[in-house]
Amino acid sequence: MENxxxxxxxxxxxxxxxxxxxxxxxxxxFLIYQFYQNGSGILWVSGIxxxxxxxxxxxxxxxxxxxxxxxxxxxxxxxxxxxxxxMLRIHGSSIGIYDVLFGKTDAAIVNEIxxxxxIIRGDxxxxxxxxxxxxxxxxxxxxxxxxxxxxxNMIIGYNAPVWDLTLIGKPFIWGYLLFxxxxxxxxxxxxxxxxxxxxxYEMMFIxxxxxxxxxxSSICIVFSPLLQWWLAPHMYQVFFWAxxxxxxxxxFFMAKxxxxxxxxxxxxxxxxxxFVIALFPSLQIPLGLLMLALLVATLIRDKKELxxxxxxxxxxxxxxxxxxxxxxxxxxxxxxxxxxLNNTVYPGHRVSIGGDQGLEVLFTDPSVxxxxxxxxxxxxxxxxxDFNQLGIFFLFVYFYFLWLKKKGKxxxxxxxxxxxxxxxxxxxxxxxxxFPEIIxxxxxxxYINRMxxxxxxxxxxxxxxxxxxxxxxxxxxxxxxxxLACGLFILLYIATMxxxxxxxxxxxxxxxxxxxxxxxxxxxxxxxxxxWRKLFFPIFGSWVVITGMxxxxxxxxxxxxxxxxxxxxxxxVREEQPDARWLITNSKYTQQLLLANGIKVANGVNFYPDLKxxxxxxxxxxxxxxxxRYAHIVINFTEEPTHYSLDGADSFxxxxxxxxxxxxxxxxxxxxxxxxxxxxxxxxxAELVFEDPASNSFVYEIKKVG
Length: 706
Description:
Layout: H1 2-35, H2 42-54, H3 56-72, H4 74-87, E1 90-91, H5 97-102, E2 112-114, H6 122-137, E3 143-144, E4 152-153, H7 174-179, H8 181-208, H9 211-222, H10 225-229, H11 235-254, H12 258-276, H13 281-301, H14 312-342, H15 381-384, H16 391-406, H17 415-432, H18 437-442, H19 451-472, H20 479-497, H21 503-527, H22 536-547, E5 554-556, H23 559-562, H24 565-576, E6 581-584, H25 590-596, E7 600-601, H26 611-617, H27 624-627, E8 632-638, E9 643-648, E10 651-657, H28 658-661, E11 668-670, H29 673-681, E12 684-692, E13 697-705
Parallel strand pairs: 6-7, 6-11, 8-10
Antiparallel strand pairs: 1-5, 2-5, 3-4, 9-10, 11-13, 12-13
Helix pairs in contact: 1-2, 1-22, 4-8, 6-25, 8-9, 8-11, 9-19, 11-12, 11-13, 12-14, 13-17, 13-19, 16-19, 16-20, 17-19, 20-21, 21-22
């Protein structure tokens, strides 16, 4: 009788869980369909999800077996999905912005299947894509003068496709070199997401030993707002390679089978090279330390399974030698570019000592639920982005677990949890109090100007590690513990979030929205301490869909890059004059679009100063504080002496004297008629050779400089 009642109770809980999940699918689908631009495709997706979830009433076992099959054969499934997506040329780039800026040749061509490109993703569609695409015309050479008069190092340039040994650590760009730009763009986006899903699963399974939780947490990590907003150009890959180093490092020491030892040895070289050449110290240093600490903690936890002999020392030697050779050659070939980059005003000369963050960074910014739908008024959507985590909630729970352990009720190892808490406390100290400058430099923390990102990532890992512990020791936990942690979490969340909210969001939505997010997050944590604990996953998963999965569009093909009349004419010139140099005025975008199509420009984005150009225009270097930086370069003609003004930390305007313009070897100029008249008045024969009404572009050929 008791077993029958227990079974009925379990059945009721299961039915409620399925019903609530169906309701959440409908609510999320309605929000996307109603408020998300170009979001009608959600109707098909939600229909499939509703069907599968509802079928759980009758086929729970079969669906679970299907999920087990996917997990077991995840690498095969991933390969099939990757192949299909790449063949369909699917990606998430915001290149559709070019259609808005320049107009389409064929309005019937629709590339954006779901969502729209975002202007804030300029570093992706307006810097990385042109750099990567231009390498097809540059034959993948290390140095390129397509964006400047003197060559730029293309590995420094967001790790653009280059035929060299570092390719072993850059699988994301193989498609560009092997199959060209359109396939390469799809390869880049799909491989980044699919590989991180695989690595995230392995990482979380090593930490939690729970396959379903690992699958869920991997999805939450990859589709976190921060990683999606920064998926390109390079921040995302630092998180990916750091996580990969942890996974490969674990199997490097724990592998028993010969094939796995060999594979982990090879992958160790790939991961080390990929991590080092990511070239983003403010993330590399803390993430490297985080993953090293976690690796040591897991090896201590699993020391009884450690399989190591003297012959394995040879593997370490091989990894060191191979990695040293590859990175050594890279450093020798790129030493001048690295030196120039390090000596720039921005980003080279930045020293961080911490102590510049408020307590609100301890929590997920509630605004991440709004940024996929509405552009912030005064803040950058990328800077608002965060990881979805309940770190503080589980910090309270962690101390309760320590009390249980002291009472002898828990005997398991807490080495991973202890390590994560220690790291989080160090991160908090640096964010809120800071280090003396000398200590910051000794510990290399002086490079870390984005510690809030690392804290969010650490807190997210800690969240899922603690969820695993809550499930393991659920019989020892009372709902009262969850309620207390929930209450403290919500109070602290509400008290600290207000200063960090975008002012226009705050004015439009008011306090109630932000309080409701705090209540939702706290409620999710509380559920884990009740018999309804499995409801945590659909509720938290719905939050992940809203905040992370809607950031980037789903796009097919790359017509947005070349489907313009202006590009058609420029390509015609390129075929007849492949070395012709173009200069563009009053734009940050036109020169980059030309660059993406293999047109050489004089004022493309430079990662470090174009020495040849500035030697011509500023031989005394009296203005190097303007151009000695990673920079978007906007040029306007003037009769006044050449002068400059900063348009941002990574952008400046050069007011180029028309007589100084004569010093530059430029064959074509895209400018307005008034500026063209100014050139003609100074003896420059600028002949209008093409006009594009769609983009309001006027192309002038410089026939003769008088």
